[in-house]
Specification:
283 residues; alpha+beta; Jelly Rolls; Arc Repressor Mutant, subunit A; 2 domains; six-stranded antiparallel sheet; four-stranded antiparallel sheet; 49% helix
Length: 283
Amino acid sequence: MSLAVEMNIYPYAEKTESLPVCLRGIGGTEWQGYVKETGDNCWNKLLWCVKGRGCLNFDNKSVEISAGDLLYMPRRFPHEYYPFEKKWTVRWIVFDGYDLDRTLTQLGLDKPSVIKGGGLKELNRLYDKAMLSIQADRINGPLRGSGLCYEMILELHSLMMSEALPGSAVRNEILLPVINHIEDNFRRDLPVTELVELGGVSHQYLGRIFRQAMGTSIEKYLQKRRLWEAKHLLLETEKPVAEIAAMCGFRDPGYFSTVFRRAEGMSPAAYRRISQQQLNERK
C-alpha cells in the first residue's frame, strides 16, 4: 500500500519548456474533494486511488474509483470527480509537452480511460522517485521529474494494453520467445512457420495476439526489423548494398531495394548518400 502524500508541487525550470514531455504538477491528498473541469483544462491528468472510494463522471458515464483504480484524463475533456467517503486518498500528476499530443495518439492515449485494479507498484515507484527528485534538487529535479513522467506514461500504456488483452500474462509467455527468436535470427531466412512452431499455437492465433501486442503483423515486423538493421549498416559501413541485403535476411538484392524504396521513398544507395551529406553538414 502506498503512503499518502499531502502536498501539491508545480515544478518550474525553463529547460523543461522545450521538452517533448513536461511534468507540470505532482501531488496527493488523503482528503480529495470535488473537482470539475469544463473542457478548458490544458494539462493531461493521471490520478489513482490509494484508499477509499470516489466517483468519476465523463462523457455521460459514471465510474466508481476505489483503491488500486487508475483514471487517465487527456486535456480538454470535460469531467468531474468527487469522494464517496469522507476520506478519499489519491495521488496524481499533470503533464504536457510540445510533442505530447502526437505521442499520446500513437500510444492510443488520446481518450479518457479507467483501469480497474491495474497493479500500481511500478507507477508508485516512479511517482516516489519523481517527488523525491523535485524536492531534493530544485535545479535539476524538474528535468528528472519530466523524464520520470514519460516513464509513467509508458507504464500507463502497458497497463492499458494488459487490460485490453485478457490473459496477457499467458500471451506474453507465447510472444516473448517468438520475438526473441526474431531478434536472434532475422539475418537469415526465417519462415513464419518456424515462429508458429516455437509459439506452440496455431498460425491464426499467433498472428492475432502478435498484432494486438506489437501493432503489426509478424511478416511486417520481421521486414521492418531487417530494414532497421540495413539502415544502420548503410550508415556505419561501406559494404555494398547487395552484401547488406544478404546480411539482413534478404536473399534477393533487387527485392531488398524494392522493399527499401517502398519504406523510405528512396533507394538504399540514395539513403546512404543523403544521410552522410546531412551528417557532414551537422559537423
